[in-house]
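$ fold --in a.seq
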Amino acid sequence: MRTIPLFLCGMLFLLSGNHLCTGESKKAINLAGYNMYQKMIPDDSIFIPSLIRIYNDPNEPGVPDGKDFRRLICRITGQNLLVSIGFYSPRNLSYFFCYFSTDNDKAAEICVRCQSGGFEVSEETQPGWYNTHLYSGTPNTTTYYYTMELPWTTLFHNLDTVQCWLYAMDGKDRLPDTGTVTISWWELVSVSKTETTLYQGDVLYRQTPEGWWIRTDGKVDDRSHLFFPGSTITNADVTALLDSIGCATTLTNNDAEIWNRAVQVWNWLQTHQLTSGANYTAAQTYYQGLGNWPSIAQIAYMYVHFGGIYWGTCMSRSQLFATLLFGVGIHPDRFAIAEAYWKASYSQHMYVILYLNGHWYYLDPTCIFQSIPASPASIGCTSADYAHPVGIFTLPGSSLSYVPLVE
């Protein structure tokens, strides 16, 4: 049994083979298909009404039963993680700790100090010290159980899996004895719905901790080095290009500023796309001779030397548009190239999706001739199923790993 100093995390090794348990047994529960499971804990009045993750801990002979962790129970309620900690006899601890690792290493990034009157959630500021307050709340307590509700995204942001363990200094008990318990949003969530698409029939979507609806069969292509090479190159041509667009280029995650910059890029493309003439032919020859998707420096070269940008297929237009959005500092988690079916199940169309104010919007650069409004709105002009992309292509540095429903 390890002793962990107050608000310090020990070097804890991951446990392979954690399993789902019911009651006192160590038998795994099969959650394939997200079947509902219900059980009344026999020694107290806590009821488990949904998908659950249970870890049972053996009765430690050297630990008083009131200080001895018996089980950890987790489930999702709304957008929150409900954590219940059970003891072998009426709880007799003044405080204990619930730790979470968010990066799969041996130490915790989140520490929850649990007391009878309340719990405090803090984030690590330096190894072993938790000085950034994230959340506080009042537990629901019974004779044998201590239950707290934790807002998933406040603590874990866009992660869908974290590692957890418990430790009590008074009694020196730990659950599990070594390693961690894996808590997965997808093992616990049961919120899903069916969307009727234009060309593929009904498709299943599930809800993420952030509240997004994501396609269960969606494909994410994160080979940004292929689709967005040289994204951070700077030279005189790039400076001239960005100056011509005329907006700030510092990284931003602000909704209003993101839309403002997207508007400026869209309006710039309206007047700088080349579709005919000698400059178009020269830009086309240059573009097609690259042998790769163009970097921002190569896009800038077209602008400086030919007065505009070669305007090719839907994928090339989307790649150009997305590269410029990245160039003006829009955070890569806020947009991606999307791929959807168009007219028939074998015909695909590419466009850009943008996340603002809790919603995904689509902006199709094939429709660059359309005016873009001052307030966020989707823009499309084809019969593509914009709302139901089948895949996305992410930008350098993006953490997007799901294909969202575009509402």
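$ fold --in b.seq
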Amino acid sequence: MKAPRSLVVIRLVLSTLLLCSAARLASAQEAAGGVTNGAPETSTAGAVAADGAAAGGDAGGDAGGAVGDAVGDAAGDAAAAEEAASREAVDELFERAVAVYRAGDFVRAMGLFAAAAELERDGPRRALCHGNAGTAAARGNRLGEAVWHLESAQRLTPRDPTVELNLAQVRALVGTGETEASHFTEALLRMPLWLTPAEVELAVAGLVGLALLVAALWRLAGGGGGEARGPARPLGWLAVALLVIALGAWAWDRSVRRAAARDAVVVTEIVAVRGEPQDDGRVLFRLSAGAVVGDEEVRRGWRLIETSEDARGWVPLDAVRPLTAGS
């Protein structure tokens, strides 16, 4: 016997809600991943707590369980203390950086902001540290460092107007500014980077959920039982279109982010690009600080890079810094 149509609709709606909840949970776990990975002592203490609980069970149950709970509580307290200590360290570095910046020592302020960004685990706060480091670097005439920090900040907070404005000004200073036409083309090609990965996942989950709701209406209108008639036909095609759009958006986002993961910035003032990974290799061309290139390969202290014009060559490893290191 077929299930009533109302029951089918309810099941589909529940499936949609579960899918959206799973997407939000995955995004939350992704955002919290840095905290977990950044606290190895917590994992060790958790293992100690598990061992303590097991030993207590072998020894007599309740007493061992109490010991395990006590060790687990201690592990939680240690993790909280470590988190608080890390937050205090970041805040102290940030305050020192602001004071040094106001005193006019921009290069030192850049280093302090950069150190705070390295310790910071929260994405928007890390973006703030990178943005301030980029501003200090620009004031200290470290234009390569300025581009790298501002690019890192933009990847963490893609729609921050202050970061976008500062980055455009620094690019103009280093001579890598774009024309209006090239900027428009580049913006279209890299449109997924206007969103964070969590926002993209949520948008894709929303499209899939909407497709499931439309599919439920399609079933309710008589679809699925032979040839669709009346309003069922456009509803069926709409559900398929939404699923195709969701799949296409997901694939496009993954493709763009894979390409963006290769981006690196020249941080030295001028670097000679050589044909071989050695000091006496033939110089092919030179790049200025702030140029964004593709990071292709690392070999014996040298990095193979590729420019936007498809020119390739080798540079010293520390002359170019991958943007993935800042995000």
